[in-house]
Every structure is written in C-alpha cells, then in structure tokens.
Amino acid sequence: MATESYENFETTLDDGVLRAEIHGTSKMNALNDTMTEELLDLAVRLHEEPIRCFVLTGSDGVFCAGGDVETFGSDDAPSEMRKGASLLHDAIVQFHQAEVPVVVGVNGAAVGAGFSLGIFGDFVLASEASYFQFGYPGIGATGDGASTYFLPRVVGLRQAKRIALLNERIDPEEAVDLGLATEAVPDEEFEDRLGAVAARIAEGPTVALGRTQRLLTESTSRGIEAQLAAETDVIAETAKTDDFQEGVSAFAEKQSPEFEGR
Asked: What pLDDT does 66 receive?
C-alpha cells in the first residue's frame, strides 16, 4: 500500500486501486484552488503509475458541496473563476484521456462542482444519505466541471434541462432511475460495496476496460463512421497488450484469465 501527501485528499494505492478520499480544507469539502491542483495531480498519476482503477469519494458524510463560494465575492471573481474552471477542466480531460476506469462513491452532498465530479465516473455508487443537486443556479452561475457535457449524456437532454432549471435535490433512488448514479446502497453497505466494485474492476483487463469507457463516452459526439473507425483503431492497439494475449490463451486452454492491467 502506498500513499501520497495532499492537503485535501487522503489517498491509498493498493492492488492497483488508487483511492482518493476528499478531506477538504474548506467547509463541506468545497473545491478550492489547492484541491483543484491536487485533483489534477491525481489525474496525471493515472498516466504515469501502474494504476488499474481510480476511486474518488468523500468523507464524514459529505462528498463535495461545490466551489468555495466564500471566495467568489472579490472584484477579481471573473478571472479567478476562469482560472479555477480551466484547472478543473484540465483535470477532467486528464482523467478521461488516462483510460483508467473511474469509480465515484457519492456518500453525501454532491452539489455544483461536486455534482460534476459526482457524475463523471464510469461507475457511480451512491449511499442512501447522499443527494445530487446541480447547484449552480443558486449563485447565479452556469455549469462547469463537464457537468453540461456529462449530464445530457447520462439522463437525456430534456431531463438535463429540467435538472438545471429547477435545481432540485435528487435522492439516490431517483439518481439511479435517471442515470446519474449506477447503484444506490444503504449507508452501512457503502464502503464494502465501493471496495468490492473497485476490486472487481481492478482484477479485469483494465486497459481494455478503460478504453471501452472512453469509446462509449465519445460515441455520442461521433457519427457511425467515425465511431467504427475509432473502434477499429482501439481494438487493434489493445490486441498488443499482455492482457489480450492472456485472455486469448486462457480461452483456448479453458481457464480463467489472470489479467495484470497491461
């Protein structure tokens, strides 16, 4: 097990699973400048280290209550918002490009930027004490953190507009029904289920799994010809991996494959 030192996250790296638990220095795990920089660092690590699954979750019954609104009132707010959003977006892009499966465990309030982080994962687990809320209209702001990219893709355009317009709290069960979350579980089962999902994914052919998630996400932005061309390129590249060779060999020998994520 390995750890790195962050001001706003407690992290572990165990059996290929990098887990980042938000322990924000701002109230309600609000996203501040340092947290955003650390989030980008975590995303970059997915490119540089042998990480097979990334898990993002909150702490003490809070996921992330958005940006640190108390810092938004200065005359420099427009430039500071541009800088903060740009850094957050760099992190989101790095997570997406890393092709490492991302599991998000929403264990409390996921509002504003927290809403964005709450829905961008490949697998989103919600505890019964959690809720999702677009949040941005509450301070007269528009969405960032890829919320306007992922939201219509996971719930459909009409529902996305309703969620943004009404800005209502969405409980875990409705979040699953809408597609914001993959699964909802009771609080007492949350940690065990989060660990089990991450472990199950990390035991798989995670290069192929990560690339499949990226293909699925990008499919809604492409025509069929472009999507099929991308599938051709990605499956050919993935055939070069050790896991592909292991999978084919195990299939031929009628054995269970032992994937190593490479």
From this structure: 83
